[in-house]
Design goal:
Two copies of one chain form a homodimer. Chain A has about 325 residues and is α/β, with parallel strands linked by helices. Helix content of chain A is about 35%, strand content about 20%. In chain A, strand 12, helix 8 and strand 13 form a beta-alpha-beta unit. Chain A is globular.
Chain lengths: ~325, ~325
C-alpha cells in the first residue's frame, strides 16, 4: 500500500502544502499567503485547515505517515520557529505542538516534524535530487533570505540546539551593511533577494552609474527587475550580481573550510538569474577557497523543481 | 588487561612520542627533533625506531592497539601529511603507509591512524578532558597558526576529503591583512601567535599609541612580550589582544552558525594570556553570535595539560 505524507514549506511570502507519496510524487498542492498573517495562532489555525483538506483528499487517511514542515529558523529538536527575521511572527512559535493539538482535536492524531527550510530542501535533494549519492554537501537557498543545510556523512547537521546550518548568518563583512538579524555584514544582507534589492538602491543612491533601474519607482526594484536589467547589459544591475556573488562566495568558502563538502547545491529565486549570478559566483568562490579545497568542489543548481523541492524535502521528514 | 597505544605529536620543531594506557596515563615519553630532518624517509625511519622502542618498553606488546599520529595538515582518510607549511618535508608524505610497512618488516604489524593536530587535540579533549559528555563542540588551537577540530554528534567532522575543520582559514575581513595561505583576512592572520605579532608591528608603525614594545627590537616582539606588556597595562599591547579577540570571535561565531556547538574549547600558546585574551574574546563572541545562539555557548580553556594533550589525543585514535 502506498504511503503518504504532507510536506509544508513555510516561507516569508507563501506557505506551500503538498500531499506526497513515498516515491516523491506530489498528488495535490495548496498555498497560503504567510505575509498576510500577523498573529501566529490565526495563521497556524489556517495551516491546520489546509492540512486537514489534504488529509481528506488523500486516497486513504490511514496511510498518512505524518506532517513534515520546513520553516525559516525552524528548530528540529523543539518543533519551534525561533526569532525568524523574515516572518511576521516574532519570538518562539510552538508550531509542532500547536498543529499537533489542533489536529488531535479534529480527530487526526498525526505527528508533526519540523526543520529549517533549507534543511528540508537538502533532504529533498538527498532523496529526490542531485545529492542521491553525495555524503557531504551544502544546500544553499537564495530566497527572501539565505538559508543552508549542511550534510556531513549523509546526515543533516543539527548541532547542539538544532540551529546548525545558518551560512546566511555568517559574517563576511564586519564593517558592512546592517542585517535583519541586528548584526552587520551577514551573507543574507547581501546575497538574498532582499539583499540584491538593497545593493541596487545603494548603488542608485551612492554612485553615478547609468541604469534603467533609475527610471523605476523604488518599490518596483527587486530580483526580477534587476535580472531583467542585467540581461540587457545594464551596468548597475550587473554590479548588483557581482556584489551578491562575492559575499555569497566568501560565506560558502568559509563553510567549506569548516565542513569540506564534495558539492554545493544552489536553490531558490535568485538562482533563476543563471549566469548573471553563477559566472561571478564561480569566480569569487574559487578565489575565496583555502588552497586545499581549490578546484575540487562542484557548484550545482539544484536538480529539483523550485516549487516542489521544499515541499518534497519536508514531506520526506515523516518517512 | 590494560590496553595501550602509542601517541605521536608531529610538530615543526619536535616530534613527541608517548606510550599511553587506555586511562590516559602516559607511561613513557620520547622526543625527536623534526626540524633536523630534511628527507622524509630518513625521518620516518627514525620515527619507526622510536615506536619500536616504546613497543618494547610496554608491559605487554600484544596489548598495543595501534599507533595514533597528530600532524599539521594531516589527512585522516589518506594517512598523509599534505603541503604542511611548517615542516621541512614538502608535498604529500605517505606517513601511515611508510610506517606501517616498516613496522611490518620488523614484525610489528600495527595499524597507524593519522589526523590533523587540532583534530587530535579535540579527540584528547573528548576522551580525557572537558568534553567527555559533550557531543557537539569546537576545539580551537591558538599556536603558530589557528587550528580547529569540529565535533558533531560525538564525531570529528572530516568531510569529503578529510580537510574539514579549518576555522583558522575562514575569511573574516575580506579587505584585510594578507594571510600565509595567500588570501586576505583569514582568522589565522590575526589570531595566532604570529598574527598578534603582526598586529603589534602594524600598530607600532601606523599609530602613535605609547608602548613599552616600541623599545624592543622587532625580533623580540611576540606573544610573550606582548603579554608581559599587556599585564603592565600597556595600551598598545591591550589593543593587540582586542584585535586578536575580535577576529577570532567572528570566526568562532561563523563556525557556530554552521555547526551549532554546545561548547568551544580553546587551547595552545595564546590562551596562556588569560583574561587579556578571554575578556575581549567573550565580549566580541557574544556580540558576533546570531541571535539564536546568544548566551548559550560556553567558552572554556582546555582541561588538558598543553604538553600532553596532543600525545593523548593521538594516542586515543587507535582506541
Amino acid at each position: 500500500m502506498e504511503k503518504y505524507s504532507i510536506g509544508i514549506d513555510i516561507g516569508g511570502t507563501n506557505t506551500d502544502f503538498g500531499l506526497v507519496d513515498k516515491g516523491g510524487n506530489i498528488i495535490e498542492i495548496l498555498s497560503l499567503s504567510t505575509k498576510d498573517y500577523f498573529d501566529y495562532e490565526i495563521y497556524l489555525n489556517e495551516v491546520t485547515k489546509n492540512i486537514i483538506y489534504l488529509i481528506e483528499k488523500s486516497p486513504n487517511k490511514d496511510l498518512i505517515q505524518g506532517i513534515g514542515i520546513g520553516a525559516p529558523n525552524g528548530n528540529y529538536y523543539n518543533g519551534t520557529i525561533e526569532h525568524a527575521p523574515n516572518l511576521n511572527f516574532k519570538g518562539i512559535i510552538p508550531v509542532k505542538e500547536y498543529i499537533e493539538n489542533r489536529l488531535s482535536e479534529k480527530g487526526f492524531p498525526l505527528k508533526v516534524t519540523l526543520t529549517n527550510d533549507a534543511n528540508a530542501a537538502a533532504i529533498g535533494e538527498m532523496i529526490y535530487g542531485g545529492a542521491k549519492n553525495v555524503k557531504n554537501f551544502l544546500m544553499i537557498t537564495l530566497g527572501t533570505g539565505v538559508g543552508s543545510g549542511v550534510v556531513v556523512d549523509g546526515k543533516i547537521v543539527y548541532g547542539h540546539d538544532g540551529f546548525a546550518g545558518e551560512v546566511g548568518h555568517t559574517i563576511v563583512q564586519p564593517v558592512g551593511r546592517l542585517c535583519g538579524c541586528g548584526r552587520k555584514g551577514c551573507v543574507e544582507t547581501y546575497s538574498s533577494v532582499t539583499g540584491i534589492k538593497k545593493t541596487a538602491l545603494e548603488l542608485i543612491r551612492e554612485t553615478c552609474t547609468n541604469s534603467i533601474l533609475r527610471t523605476l519607482p523604488e518599490e518596483e526594484i527587486g530580483g526580477k527587475t534587476i535580472y531583467q536589467a542585467g540581461m540587457q547589459g545594464d551596468e548597475l544591475a550587473i554590479k548588483c550580481f557581482d556584489i551578491t556573488a562575492k559575499m555569497l562566495a566568501i560565506g560558502m568558502a568559509n563553510a567549506v573550510a569548516i565542513t569540506s563538502p564534495e558539492k554545493i547545491f544552489l536553490f531558490g529565486g535568485l538562482t533563476k538569474s543563471g549566469d548573471l549570478l553563477m559566472t561571478p559566483l564561480k569566480k569569487y568562490f574559487e578565489e575565496s577557497l583555502f588552497v586545499v579545497f581549490k578546484n575540487k568542489i562542484e557548484l550545482k543548481l539544484s536538480d529539483l523543481d523550485e516549487n516542489n523541492a521544499a515541499i518534497l524535502g519536508a514531506a520526506a521528514l515523516p518517512f
